[in-house]
Specification:
heterodimer, A: alpha/beta, Rossmann fold, 5-stranded parallel sheet, 4-stranded parallel sheet, B: mainly alpha, ABC transporter involved in vitamin B12 uptake, BtuC, two-stranded antiparallel sheet, 14 helices
Chain lengths: ~425, ~350
């Protein structure tokens, strides 16, 4: 039984006994009532010092001799002094500042970047691809976990995901330029890098069409000091698009449903560059939404009756599996395209605002309008995409890349 | 049980503070980038000597520029959530109460999302843009606190049951509004919101904000601590406490407002980090007993320790990719809690 000051148990909870209950209890009561009740302060100080002294003797200092203590003290001071030694040497040799210039990026921010950036970190798969296409891959020192194309990009130092890159890892790479996109990177990341004094160049603030992608590519080429490579690359891509346009001009556009995700059914809005890429392949998306990633109602899709379903995947097999699982559902049987097994699979390059999107456009055009490509070998079955036509990249066919199916959030964003 | 004396209180808090210090040192060493203890000590000494120019560039920037602010943020958020958890558990006399039970997190989330949407349409300087999300979240939290307070009143006083029900209803209503906004709005505005819902300490906050948060924490936690012994009596029952001389309505208002402000501050900078505010108070209660004069400071320190550990794990387990810290708190916290609970029963 507990008497006097101190808590007593009431129904499993601790409450004070009534003997210690003045009306208000603040710090003054606390100090008066408890601290000075039994033991005077002088005794407390003595006990504390005794305790500290004994614990020091017992645990930390083996020899009681004063000499040992003195040696330890001298050693400690020496360690402190020695540890400060290299600091001074380092501070006396500042690195020469590199030549800088001011540019306005696509976010509208004014950024001071080096004249010729030599250590670049890319925070988006599309930017990594663009750097490879421009032939400056040697200056790329780090990229994200999702940068899987070309395969060589997987060997670069990874700085984490695109949405949540690891700031420490970026800083440790000592980049003189970090490339970010509005589409998949967070403004917080850009702000944090700004605070660390690392220049960040933002792209894709208003990428709505394929032409926007090409102009961004040219701007990046100018930024990185390789304007000629950018000019020849964009000129070649423009030429390929023009050639495609002249082939498909006479044909009526096929109405397609571009499927980003199946459960729930997510497609692309009309203002996205993916919708524009579909238009370039003479296909019109049946979705007329202003949102970028609208979640579609199946009733609406059945009413619209698209001619083709278009899947974008890194593996043709996984897209086929997706289609089979959809086709087995009774409600999807209402779609003519499912009943007649009309679907096209293109590489996931179409999801990324990078130069490779032109190859995906050509691929899609071949699958939707085989008649226009009679002179070139057309694919037998739509489920197996044709080998990609030669392009300036050291290209491996997209379906041979080694990544796994991304998760939903990253799939919608990993472009 | 031995009576609580000031010596014992300070001793226990001192031990917890030492553990916190050790955890912080380890957290500063661990991370995606390897830092030697020697380099760490060297940098810290040179900072203490005000020779920041002499920092070894790498370690200095990474440890002091990235890691330390994040650890400080974790300390603050963990302490705030735990103190708020203790307070709500005592106020509502409900062991399941946590800082988010009264809808503060949902209100803050809605505020943050509205701020994210507005930010895209305003042309703000970078400093302002960094502040707008926390400010929006805190405004959302404050509006929710006021609304739940009005809902929770009965006969001019806060009633625990009405408050709890009003808070839960408000939380579910606000969650529905958030879901509506997230499905109807364009995705680009809401890039960071998914991280926000999982709890995220990786976003560096401006230093002024950290000072402000520390100030708010001291005020609010101090206000709660002045009612610590009243909370002890409140646990015996509201009528009993009133008979024993506790001004119950006043205690309720002070604790409700202060704990909600703590939650709002924490949520506005870190998103909703779960379990810390629920588990840490219970763990501390199992270790130190349920005297609030001990429990509140112990929870503050324990919450800070727990969140720093969880954040360090989140940073290092799948390095260089960060895990959401909210997942880590539950992963690491739940087994520890079950262990303590079983040991107590056995």
């Amino acid at each position: 039984m507990q008497f006097g000051r101190g808590p007593a148990t009431v129904f499993g909870f601790i409450a004070e006994s009534q003997a210690t209950l003045p009306r208000r209890r603040g710090w003054a009561y606390f100090a008066r009532g408890y601290a000075s009740s039994t033991t005077p302060v002088s005794r407390r100080v003595f006990l504390l010092s005794e305790f500290l002294w004994r614990s020091c003797q017992g645990r930390f200092v083996q020899h009681r001799s004063i000499n040992a203590m003195r040696r330890a003290r001298v050693f400690g001071v020496a360690v402190l002094l020695l540890s400060a030694w290299p600091l001074r040497a380092q501070s006396l040799t500042p690195a020469p500042p590199p030549a800088m210039r001011e540019v306005v990026d696509e976010f509208g921010r004014t950024v001071r970047v080096p004249e010729l950036p030599m250590r670049i970190v890319s925070l988006a798969p599309s930017l990594t691809e663009t750097l490879y296409a421009l032939g400056v891959q040697d200056r790329l020192v780090g990229d994200t976990d999702f940068c899987d194309y070309p395969p060589d990009a997987q060997k670069k130092t990874k700085v984490g995901g695109a949405i949540n890159p690891n700031l420490e890892e970026i800083a440790a790479l000592h980049p003189d330029l970090v490339l970010a996109t509005k589409e998949i990177n967070r403004p917080d990341t850009v702000r944090a890098l700004d605070n660390l004094g690392i220049p960040v160049y933002g792209t894709d603030a208003h990428t709505r069409t394929v032409d926007d992608i090409l102009s961004t590519t040219q701007k990046l080429a100018d930024l990185l000091g390789v304007p000629e490579a950018g000019k020849s690359l964009t000129a070649e891509l423009h030429a390929r698009l023009t050639a495609l346009h002249s082939k498909l001009e006479a044909l009526p556009p096929s109405r397609v449903l571009f499927i980003v995700w199946t459960h729930p059914l997510i497609s692309v809005g009309k203002n996205t560059f993916i919708a524009d890429a579909l238009r370039k392949a003479d296909a019109a998306s049946v979705v007329d939404a202003t949102q970028d990633w609208p979640q579609m109602n199946l009733e609406e899709v059945v009413r619209l009756q698209p001619d083709y379903l278009v899947f974008a995947a890194s593996h043709a097999e996984s897209a086929s599996r997706d289609f089979e699982s959809l086709a087995s559902l009774p409600s999807w049987q209402l779609l003519d395209a499912v009943r007649n097994r009309r679907f096209a699979v293109i590489s996931d390059a179409v999801n990324r605002p990078a130069p490779r999107i032109v190859s995906a456009i050509e691929d899609l055009a071949r699958q939707l309008h085989p008649a226009a490509f009679q002179d070139s070998p057309a694919p037998e079955k739509p489920a197996t995409p044709a080998p990609l036509p030669s392009n300036p990249l050291p290209a491996a066919p997209a379906h041979m890349t080694l990544n796994t199916q991304p998760t939903m959030v990253e799939f919608a964003c990993a472009r | 049980m031995r009576p609580l004396t000031l010596t014992r209180l300070l001793l226990r808090c001192g031990v917890l503070a030492l553990i916190l210090f050790a955890v912080v040192v380890v957290a500063m060493k661990l991370g995606a980038v390897q830092v030697s203890l020697y380099g760490l000590g060297k940098d810290l000494i040179s900072v203490l000597l005000h020779r920041t120019s002499a920092l070894s560039s790498d370690y200095g920037m990474i440890v002091l520029g990235i890691r330390l602010p994040r650890i400080l943020l974790a300390i603050f958020v963990g302490a705030s959530l735990s103190v708020a958890g203790v307070s709500f558990q005592a106020l509502l006399r409900n062991p399941l109460a946590d800082p988010y039970v009264l809808g503060v997190s949902s209100g803050a989330a809605l505020g943050a999302i509205v701020a994210l949407i507005v930010e895209g349409h305003l042309n703000l300087s970078p400093e302002m843009a960094g502040l707008i999300t926390p400010v929006g979240a805190f405004l959302g939290a404050a509006v929710t606190i006021a609304a739940v307070y009005i809902l929770g009143r009965r006969d001019g006083q806060i009633d625990s049951t009405t408050l709890l029900l009003g808070g839960i209803i408000t939380a579910s209503f606000l969650s529905a509004v958030i879901m509506f906004l997230m499905t109807t709005l364009s995705g680009n505005d809401l890039r960071g919101s998914a991280f926000w819902f999982m709890g995220d300490l990786s976003t560096p906050q401006p230093r002024s904000l950290l000072y402000f948060l520390a100030f708010g924490f001291i005020i609010a936690a101090g206000a709660i601590y002045t009612t610590a012994s009243d909370l002890n009596l409140l646990l015996a029952g509201e009528k009993e406490a009133m008979h024993l001389g506790v001004d119950v309505p006043r205690v309720r208002i002070v604790v409700y407002i202060a704990a909600s402000i703590l939650t709002g501050l924490a949520v506005s900078v870190s998103g909703t980090i779960g379990y810390v505010g629920l588990l840490v108070p219970h763990v501390m209660r199992l270790i130190f007993g349920s005297d609030h004069r001990m429990l509140i400071p112990a929870s503050a320190l324990g919450g800070a320790i727990a969140l720093v550990i969880a954040d360090t794990l989140a940073r290092t387990v799948t390095s260089p990719t960060d895990l959401p810290v909210g997942a880590m708190t539950a992963l690491a916290g739940a087994p520890l809690f079950i262990y303590l609970l079983r040991r107590r029963i056995a």
